Amino acid sequence: MMAFWEGYVSDEVMGALAPIVVYWLYAGFYHLLPPLDCYRLHARAEESKNVVSFSNVVKGVLLQQTLQAAVALSMFQVTSRRVVIERPVQPSIWIQVIQIGIAMFVMDTWQYLIHRYMHVNRFLYRHVHSQHHKLVVPYAIGALYNHPLEGLLLDTVGGAISFLVSGMTPKTSVFFFSFAVIKTVDDHCGLRLPGNPFHLLFRNNTAYHDIHHQLHGTKYNFSQPFFMMWDKFLGTYMPFTLVKRPDGGFEARPIRHES
């Protein structure tokens, strides 16, 4: 089965650039929506808690994506000869599904461990990870707003390991990394839109990650972007409930509180 980009750009170039294009299209969609106060997890007045400007968020995301694209292109170049020799044709759809499942597991595991360590290690939290938490009230375009070192370790290296361990081809990676980007943006969008498939299929969703960004988030709900298995297995899971606010919106509240 031919992909729509074949004949125009290589799979390697598409694998590096497609997640960036998808990020801005999907995050831009959320940014252009009307206020939708009745679906917000935070009243708009709470956005004053954020201590970084929108323009700096955009610059930070673009910097991280530039580094990601450079690493991705280098990785594809190094592995392309091996892929050609070992797998001259694209695997069957079922093999690709298995590879994507493996990549999801590997990415979740890597990001949980690195993310949690960046909270536990006071130096790394203060000088690196705290940059992401300047967005106390997350929004879609800020999903990848991180310190460059965190972006390199958490997302870029995590993505490279997922790609290599799963054995997927650059063509398959286009779909996997684009999906991972969409899920990450959705987790930070701050909206509970009715019928959102991510809220129906994933318990690790916008509200789940919103708990992490609030006061209780310093010790709970580190899992991202797909499942919450490591939070549950390792005792960092914070259950929550959605409570209706007086202005009509929803608020994610922890069910049990920090003692």
TrEMBL record:
It is found in: Membrane. InterPro entries: Fatty_acid_hydroxylase, Sterol_Desaturase_Related. GO terms for biological process: lipid biosynthetic process. Residues 102-236 form the Fatty acid hydroxylase domain. It comes from the Eukaryota. GO terms for cellular component: membrane. GO terms for molecular function: iron ion binding; oxidoreductase activity. Its main location: membrane. The chain crosses the membrane at residues 12-33, 93-114. Belongs to the sterol desaturase family. This is Fatty acid hydroxylase domain-containing protein. It comes from Ceratopteris richardii.
